Amino acid sequence: MPKSHKLSRRRFVTTAMSAAAVSSLVVPEVFGRVAKSRPSAGATNLSDGSLTDAPPWKDQAIENLAKSPYAKLRQIPVHAVTIKTGFWGQRREINVSKSIPTMHDLLEANGRMNNFRRLAGKSDAAQSGPVFSDSDVYKWTEAVGFALQSGDLPDVRRMAEKAIDEVVAVQEPDGYLNTYYVEDRESLRMTPQTQSTGHELYNIGHMLQGSIAYYRATGDRKLLDAGIRFVNDFLLPNYGPAPKKPIVSGHPEIEMGLIELYRITGDKRQLELAGYILQGDERAKFPERRTIYMFSGTPFTARTKLEGHAVRAMYACCGATDYYMETGDAAYWKTLNTLWQDMVSTKMYVSGGVGSRSDGEAFGDAYELPNFRAYGESCAAIGNMMWNWRMLSATGDAKFTDVIERALYNGINSGMSLDGTLYCYRNPLAFDPSTGDKIRNPWYDVTCCPPNLERTFASLPGYFYSTSRDGIYLHLYDNSELDWHLEDGTGLKITQKANYPWDGEVEVAVTPAKPLDFIFHLRIPGWADTAQVSVNGKAVAGVKQGEYLPIERRWAAGDVIRLRMEMPPQVLEANPRVADDTGRVALQRGPLVYCMEGLDQPNGVELADVALDLGQKPASQFQSEYLKDMLGGMVILRHKGVAYQRPTSGNGLYSRYSGQPARTRQIPLTFIPYYAWANRQATEMQVWTPLSNA
Amino acid sequence: MPKSHKLSRRRFVTTAMSAAAVSSLVVPEVFGRVAKSRPSAGATNLSDGSLTDAPPWKDQAIENLAKSPYAKLRQIPVHAVTIKTGFWGQRREINVSKSIPTMHDLLEANGRMNNFRRLAGKSDAAQSGPVFSDSDVYKWTEAVGFALQSGDLPDVRRMAEKAIDEVVAVQEPDGYLNTYYVEDRESLRMTPQTQSTGHELYNIGHMLQGSIAYYRATGDRKLLDAGIRFVNDFLLPNYGPAPKKPIVSGHPEIEMGLIELYRITGDKRQLELAGYILQGDERAKFPERRTIYMFSGTPFTARTKLEGHAVRAMYACCGATDYYMETGDAAYWKTLNTLWQDMVSTKMYVSGGVGSRSDGEAFGDAYELPNFRAYGESCAAIGNMMWNWRMLSATGDAKFTDVIERALYNGINSGMSLDGTLYCYRNPLAFDPSTGDKIRNPWYDVTCCPPNLERTFASLPGYFYSTSRDGIYLHLYDNSELDWHLEDGTGLKITQKANYPWDGEVEVAVTPAKPLDFIFHLRIPGWADTAQVSVNGKAVAGVKQGEYLPIERRWAAGDVIRLRMEMPPQVLEANPRVADDTGRVALQRGPLVYCMEGLDQPNGVELADVALDLGQKPASQFQSEYLKDMLGGMVILRHKGVAYQRPTSGNGLYSRYSGQPARTRQIPLTFIPYYAWANRQATEMQVWTPLSNA
Fold first, then answer.
1. Which of A485, A687, B327, B462 has the fewest beta carbons closer than 10 A?
2. Nearest CA to CA, how far is B177 from chain A (Å)?
3. Using 50, 70 and 90 to split pLDDT, how confident is the model at B615?
4. B631 assigned to some structural domain
5. Of the residues A565, A597, A621, which one is the last residue of a structural domain?
């Protein structure tokens, strides 16, 4: 249990919050009673101070696993890690200075807030946007919540407070809250068809997540109370197993929201409702095609593969993992591992993106990983990271961290332009602008991805470390400071100095409040063929790539771990069953997947006409160069390649196989990190490059 | 002009038709007047006998190009060619004995006929099937019409007569006819939205085609008159350029129907309406996305590439080519050639199938030709054949015949099971039954493909020859007899003896009614590397593959052309821009594309784990063997290959590129013609096979 830890750099604790708003929620009975009386925030705050077995709001992490019996790791609050200048610092600074504020303006400009105001009689605008438009507001609120956990942002906070006021103002007396199923559409509320397609519970799931992040930043329960009213007053009494009315989770999301709510309130009914939803209700019958697409409506534990809508599937897996961490249900654990293996063995892009098909935004068949046509929705890559984060919390197994890192640095990071104002919905692995496609846009009418990216970057500090009974886990590298404590309450500071992901040297200064025996679990990434670890200059044995290195000793202030990983460019090939990658290779350096953009190659050469010439010594002929002025600073790779003498677009579509090598000329090829593509001008891109026969 | 030609084998002329029903339609004025008075069939027949410049109904071909000023070739009536025992004879026999009758029963069982009966007060059944369900009936009627052109089929004819009676009984007084936009939906008729998605004019286009084929078989004008009433009474007075109401062709098809109707009636308004529809009407505004999908709604002549829904695009191109053949409009001709080049250079499967994407049943981007995920709708391959048939008629250029043959023998022929009762909607080029997909089905609720295949096989004799001013063109090879005449009226019989496509020797006996100078244009397929032609044993010089060999001489009874084409298995490679085919080859022998089915390979070997080992001498190591009991008789191919020592499904998804050849063992590989796949048991299939590195 925490004894004391300083939060001095979190200015908002003292400047932006009233003392009365600082509360912690303790026992379900109290909370349930409070909720029943439909309190306004502030009036219902409990007094802080007496420690309970749950941490106070301000010390709850992305997920509050403090009491989760089947979580091996406990998460660390976002505020406990400060990411300093560096790779993620740069991204996160833009996220709060540009992305979150401009998204607020876009939500306004596109009528998302007027949807609420209209119901309060404060706007004449017609309903705007698709059925899930409320969730855009909630996801943005969650981004603000995580951002405020790292420090005050008065302007952004004011925007969020106003939004929250406008949201809660239109909650109906019975707890229902939705801006679409109102007026003429009110009769459609919560019908099986609406549950299947109408996103009512998806919206509320995001509302719960958003309200919780905001509460954990500010102690402000206004939106959280509205969520509790929806759950406790509207949902629980009326929906669930017979004789209540059935629920189908048309777009999984509510499951995660309910379980995180349970982790605050301790109200088991919320957990049980999540379990009920995950198992589906036979009374709500849908065609198989639909239950595949929804990744819900049939028992989660009967699933054997990932299929259907990728974001739905990932969110369902997140909820199911959360459910496992609370219940230890072995059937869930078996299914989760089967699905995970299915994904990483047959359905995940090298970028960490998932969901191959535009048609249904869906998982494809095993090994169906087209590059040009890759869907790889930003939200699905985020869902993949969120799921692996939960699997990691359940196990402490580094294989999940490898997926987190792959998705985060590549398929997620590609989703937001480097200036923080344009977003990818799709994240293809090859691109040709002549098709007319525009890959980065400021706004989508289905604008799920932009605020999802924002909340992810805002929450990033929460992913750097976890605690365990025996010590601490370090998951991600970047210049950063941890100010937290071990599970026994001993204060612990950790300072990372790194130039990651450009460089594989990481210095980790470990400063416990007092000398103490514990295990420092240092992640060795799966990509790190050569990693050396020393403590205070003395080599540590037993380093294994793709595992956590358990360094057990008496740690004391002044101890320094040094991790040295070589970062040569690595050449990857895909399983031969991936038809789209036959004869092709991808490049990776450290955690970063690389790609070629057309504008970096010799003039007039089309990417379709080039091949990489590896000769006999893969990787030895790459040139790596750090260019500090290139797209915020990056290491680019160069290698010799070949190009067809004449553009192959002049060839016929089919010709007789000659067995003769094509006529080519040597050219230099240049590769940039995949996340940075499409940040300059419309140009071709590809991740998987053919190998020359030469 | 025809002087005399015998039709003795067409028994129905004397047995099934009353003399009064034998009519020919002459001048538009008369026909227009007749139509206005809403005649019943029979009452409005004109007397036959006096020859006009249009051939009588029974001598009209698939398309009546007798007066089309910009058609270089004239088509030959279906009845003039008798396909004997052989490759197509077998397929066509099953088509009339199995496919057409069972499809009739399925249309009944699935309520398609009850849709009409309901409106006549003869059925209580609810409306059944999608908005285009009427077209299923019309397309089936067209299949019957073509089948009857080859000889009487009393049972089938009775079915069609009954169906036609039930259709025309519910035509409304103003000419409108549709079983979906009735009762509650009547107010939606011909609104812009309904035109865009409701298939009203698509249905009528198929009704016109069906009625014309039936008329040309039987002289029975009942359905044709109903079509004319729709066009002349309902459409022409009310829809068209301002001040009439606008038309958008939501699914192109009406264009072809209108122009073929014009070719019977001579009523220029029908041609002009087709031209108006092809150019779109600015008053009917749709988002660009929609006009791309529809391949209509914007000027056809402004299009620069094939895109959107593949069947729509193909039918639009058919209509546009028809329009060109009547008008000679140079803008159309330019566009048609641009689009054709776009298709054959970047968007056509080696099977002749088109439309890569399931999503929107659409053309993909250039070189986007996935194999497993290929859509290749049967209807789109048929549309491709129909379009190329029109381009061939316009030009006499053999490059179009090569596409016809490729589509017909492969991507179309695959669409119907060999027993004639199961149909493919998709025609992928690789398949894995473990995905749960079932590729051949007796019925689809969207059942466009099955009757489309039936009408195509029924019409096949009409594709074998054309006449030109200077002689005759032979397009397709099979045991067959032509009994027709040259354009100057001289009778001409041609007998083909062949074992095509299994063997490349074709004997062509040419028997003009009298010795005559003309050119025999003998097609040399594009695939025929070594073709030798002799006439009466004497070699003919100038043979060029992919062209028509013009044999100019005085032809007389007893003349025999011998065409000898070697048919070695050929190894094809795709343009390197086709990412899905990188490192892979396809096999073709004669016009047939080959594939591997899993059940023909060594036990336990998955197709994903095999590669073809061509060694240094492509094609020389194939074994070809004719198996008469295999799936109706076929040449299969064998070649040595390799398989991975261990199934690659056990490998990870991504691994470090080693540059070392994989560990493999030699195995024999067996290939069957693509059209015959999925006729035994659920098993894997693939057309494009990786080449081994060995």
1. B327
2. 33
3. confident
4. yes
5. A565
Under an 8 A CB cutoff, do A653 and B345 touch? yes
Q: Do B659 and A616 touch (CB under 8 A)?
A: yes
What's the token pair of residue B259?
């122009």
**Chain B residue with minimal CA distance to A656?**
B572
Number of domains in chain B: 3
Q: What is the CATH number of the domain that holds A536?
A: 2.60.40
CA distance A573 to chain B (A): 5
Same-domain check for residues B398 and B448: yes
Phi, psi of A309 (to 5 degrees): -60, 125
Residue B202 lies in a domain: no
Asked whether residue A1 is domain-assigned, the answer is: no
* Domain ranges, residue A662: 570-690
Asked whether residue B376 falls in the same domain as residue B392, the answer is: yes
Q: Give the side-chain half-sphere CA count within 13 A for A11.
A: 6
Domain closes at, from A463, A494, A525: A463
SS3 B636: strand
Residue B297, pLDDT above cutoff 70: yes
Q: In sequence order, which residues have a C-beta less than 8 Å from that of residue A36 and are 6 or more positions away?
A: A232, A233
* A651 → closest Cβ in B435, B575, B657: B575
User: Which range among A146-155, B28-37, B465-474, B536-545 shows the weakest confidence by mean pLDDT?
Assistant: B28-37
Pair A20, A49 in one domain: yes
Contact A576 B618 (CB under 8 A): no
Residues A454 and A492 in one domain: no
Is B652 in Cβ contact with A345 (below 8 Å)?
yes
Chain B residues with CB inside 8 Å of A649's CB? 575, 577
Q: What is the pLDDT of residue B59?
A: 96
In B, which residues are within 8 Å of A384 by CB distance? Answer: none
Cα(B535)–Cα(B540) distance, rounded to whole angstroms? 7
Q: Give the sign of the dihedral formed by CA A599, CA A600, CA A606, CA A608.
A: negative
Q: In terms of domains, do A629 and A671 share one?
A: yes
Choose from A342, A369, A651, A653 for mutation: most chain B CBs within 10 A.
A653
- Judging contacts by C-beta atoms under 8 Å, the chain B residues touching residue A615 are none
Q: What is the DSSP string of B180-234?
A: SSSGGGGGGTT-HHHHHHS-HHHHHHHHHHHHHHHHHHH---HHHHHHHIIIIII
What is the distance in angstroms between the Cα of B622 and the nearest Cα belonging to chain A?
15
Which pair of tokens denotes residue B146?
A: 């073509």
Taking the CA of residue B608 and the nearest CA in chain A, the distance in Å comes to 6
Record: contact B574-A364, CB cut-off 8 A: no
| pLDDT above 90 as % of chain A | 87
pLDDT at B10: 32
The answer to whether B654 contacts A586, with C-beta atoms less than 8 Å apart, is yes
Do A651 and B580 lie within an 8 Å CB cutoff?
A: no
Q: Does ipTM exceed 0.95?
A: no
The answer as to whether A666 is a domain residue is: yes
User: Does position B328 have pLDDT exceeding 80, yes or no?
Assistant: yes
Chain B nearest C-alpha distance from A346 (Å): 6
What residues are paired with B625 via a beta bridge? B636
Residue A616 and residue B583: Cβ atoms within 8 Å? no
State whether A295 and A197 are in the same domain.
Answer: yes
Reading the block at residue B73, the tokens are 């070739």
Q: How many CB atoms lie within 10 A of CB A566?
A: 12
Average pLDDT of chain B to the nearest whole number: 91
Half-sphere exposure of B500 (CA within 13 A, CB side): 26
Write out chain A residues lying below 8 Å of B618, CB-based: 657-659
Residue B395 scores a pLDDT above 90: yes
| pLDDT tens-digit series, residues A625-650 | 999 999 999 999 999 999 999 999 98
Residues A598 and A682 in one domain: yes
Percentage of chain B lying above the pLDDT 70 cut: 91
- pLDDT the model gives residue A425: 93
Residue B17 has pLDDT above 90, yes or no: no
Write the CATH number for A326: 1.50.10
Per-residue pLDDT, A43: 30
Q: Are strands A74-75 and A465-468 parallel, antiparallel or unpaired?
A: antiparallel
Question: pLDDT by residue (tens digit) across A194-232?
Answer: 999 999 999 999 999 999 999 999 999 999 999 999 999
- Per-residue pLDDT band at A620 (split at 50, 70, 90): low
